[in-house]
Every structure is written in structure tokens, then in C-alpha cells.
Design goal:
By secondary structure, this protein is α+β, with helices and mostly antiparallel strands. It contains 8 helices and 17 strands.
Length: 338
């Protein structure tokens, strides 16, 4: 099983733009970036209290029929017919109107991360159909592991650069407040204009433009200065919206426990929707340890180790051979010749 192929396909499917009209009147408006810098610092102070984090995020994803057709067309342009046939199972998941995935996350403040992903679809009665496959991505600060488990076998790739799997592109702690605050920091760093409106409910509407996109977020001081909803625009068109519900789980740290993300078509219609629920949340666990980033390879796992330059099968010491050398023979092949 080609792990790069799977990661690429998931990236294509997950890269949907997910805006919100806030029916609250502005109390005051300022274009003074000092107010924005104050809010930024408050957000960072709250988020930096998290030194380690473990939780489960459960996603229920929906796509409109039109969006399924658009995605199918784009995949046909990206891959040959022969390759699409090999990817039939992945395509069944990617092109399902309703599907789910359950992500088990382990993260620390240094950037180390591990996620285990189990996914599936729904039948006509709404019952879940697990696809009996599992993916694990891990980054311990030195070694990246991409592990794939299916009914046909297991495989793993080791490298010395962090992969997309552990960058947390879609995990709620990053997408809710995290991405918004990163973009806000970038704009303030370059002295870009940020508009801040204090609303009548004492929240703040923060608006700025970055990279051709317009972002509008609502910052709630009563919830650890979290971004409770966000709108994204491109050329004046509403692209996406998320709303998030937060809960204070440790003092001063508000974590997203429920999220709804909606992506819109050019006509302003809903074309994607994700409902996310988080559970089993542990923040700053005193028992957090390095072993949480470890991945066990069962016997028979096909391993490609790009760090040491070898590939082998776990449990078969005669299977080792040099990676990338077409003339390299495994120990087992050499023994057979002799």
C-alpha cells in the first residue's frame, strides 16, 4: 500500500474551505493595531498554558452531490485511470456523501505529535461501516513515522522530517483559534491593518486580510479569548464558517468540545459540513511521557527506513536491503544464491 498516495488523497479530500454573519451590533470600532496586539497576547497567554494534550476528535463529514461530482472530476485530472483503479477503496471513502473518522491525538508544546486515525462510511440507515483500516502518524522531534494497517497487511515509512499527518492541519485545537491567531500574528508582524470592533456582548470582532483572503473572527474574553466563530472570504465571496463551543477544562484553558464547519459553493449554498466532537481530553497530564509517541510494528510489517537507508520486513532478519539501490539484494536473496 502506497502511504504517499493515501496521504495525498486525504489531503485533497480534507482541503475544503469551511463564514458567519454575526447578528451583534458593534459598540465601538478602531483600526488601532494596539488593540489587536493586546487581544493577540491574551490569546497566546491562554494557549501557551498547554504543555501537553491528549484527546479524541470524532468527525461526521457531509458533502453535497454537486461537490462529490466536482471532487471526482478533480481526482480524474490528478491520477491516471490505472492508478484510480488501484485506489478504488480510498475513492469509495473520499467520494461518499457522508463519512466519518475518529482521530486520537497526543501533542506537546515542542511540536511533537502522534495521531491514530480510524475511518468509515454510513449505510442507508445511518449505521456506521468501519473500513477496518488504521493510520498512525508520529513525530517525536527526530523521527517521523507513517504507519498503515489494513486487512492485506501493514506497512510503515520512517523519515527525519515531520509529515502532514502530524502537523495537525485539521485537528480542533489548531483549527479553532490556533489558525486564526497565527494569521493575525503574521498580519501584525508586517504592520498590516487590523480592524477591531467591541460588540455589545463584550466580545470582539477582528477583521483582517492576509494572502488575498479576508478573515473575520469573534474573540470571547470570557472563554479564554478563544475564537468562537470565524468567517473566510475570497474576492468578496463567502467561503467558509466555523462555530465552536468551548469548555474550561483546567484553569485558564478553554478547549473546543463541539465544532461545526461549513463550506460554501460559488452560489452561496452549503457544499461541505463537518460536525466535530472532542472527548477524553487530558491537558498537562503529569504522567505524559516520551513513549506516547512510539509506534509498534507487528511481525510482517513492511518497513521503509529513509533515515538509515534500508527496507525490511519486521521479524525477517534476512529481508534487509539498501533502499534506493536497484541492484541491492536482501540478505535472504544472498543466502539463497549461496
Amino acid at each position: 500500500m502506497n502511504n504517499k498516495r493515501i496521504v495525498l488523497l486525504i489531503t485533497v479530500v480534507m482541503s475544503q474551505w469551511f463564514p458567519m454573519i454575526v447578528p451583534v451590533q458593534a459598540k465601538s470600532v478602531t483600526s488601532d493595531n494596539e488593540q489587536a496586539k493586546y487581544l493577540l497576547q491574551q490569546i497566546l497567554d491562554s494557549r501557551q498554558r498547554v504543555k501537553n494534550l491528549q484527546y479524541i476528535a470524532e468527525y461526521d463529514n457531509w458533502m453535497s452531490g454537486n461537490r462529490v461530482q466536482e471532487l471526482a472530476k478533480s481526482l480524474k485530472k490528478m491520477f491516471s485511470e490505472e492508478r484510480l483503479k488501484l485506489m478504488q477503496k480510498e475513492l469509495t471513502y473520499a467520494l461518499s456523501q457522508r463519512r466519518y473518522h475518529i482521530d486520537k491525538w497526543c501533542i506537546d508544546h515542542t511540536g511533537r505529535a502522534k495521531v491514530e486515525i480510524n475511518k468509515g462510511t454510513y449505510d442507508s440507515s445511518g449505521q456506521r461501516i468501519p473500513d477496518r483500516e488504521k493510520m498512525i502518524s508520529s513525530w517525536d522531534g527526530k523521527i517521523a513515522i507513517e504507519y498503515y494497517e489494513a486487512t492485506t497487511g501493514t506497512a510503515a515509512v520512517l523519515s527525519n522530517a515531520q509529515t502532514e499527518g502530524t502537523s495537525g492541519q485539521t485537528q480542533p485545537w489548531r483549527t479553532c483559534t490556533g489558525l486564526f491567531v497565527n494569521r493575525l500574528a503574521d498580519v501584525l508582524k508586517t504592520e498590516g491593518l487590523v480592524e477591531v470592533e467591541e460588540l455589545s456582548d463584550r466580545t470582539y470582532r477582528v477583521t483582517f486580510v492576509r494572502g488575498g483572503y479576508k478573515y473575520i473572527g469573534i474573540i470571547d474574553p470570557t472563554k479564554g479569548f478563544s475564537c468562537t466563530y470565524e468567517e473566510n472570504y475570497k474576492d468578496g465571496r463567502l467561503l467558509s464558517r466555523y462555530t465552536a463551543e468551548y469548555k474550561e477544562l483546567v484553569q485558564g484553558v478553554w478547549f473546543p468540545i463541539g465544532v461545526t464547519e461549513v463550506g460554501f459553493s460559488a452560489e452561496g449554498l452549503e457544499q461541505t459540513k463537518s460536525t466535530i466532537r472532542t472527548s477524553q481530553i487530558k491537558i498537562n497530564d503529569p504522567n505524559f511521557h516520551d513513549g506516547l509517541f512510539h509506534v509498534d510494528f507487528p511481525k510482517g510489517t513492511k518497513v521503509l527506513d529513509k533515515v538509515t537507508g534500508v527496507k525490511y520486513v519486521v521479524g525477517d532478519p534476512t529481508s534487509y536491503r539498501v533502499y534506493g539501490d536497484p541492484n541491492s539484494r536482501s540478505v535472504g536473496e544472498i543466502v539463497k544464491d549461496e
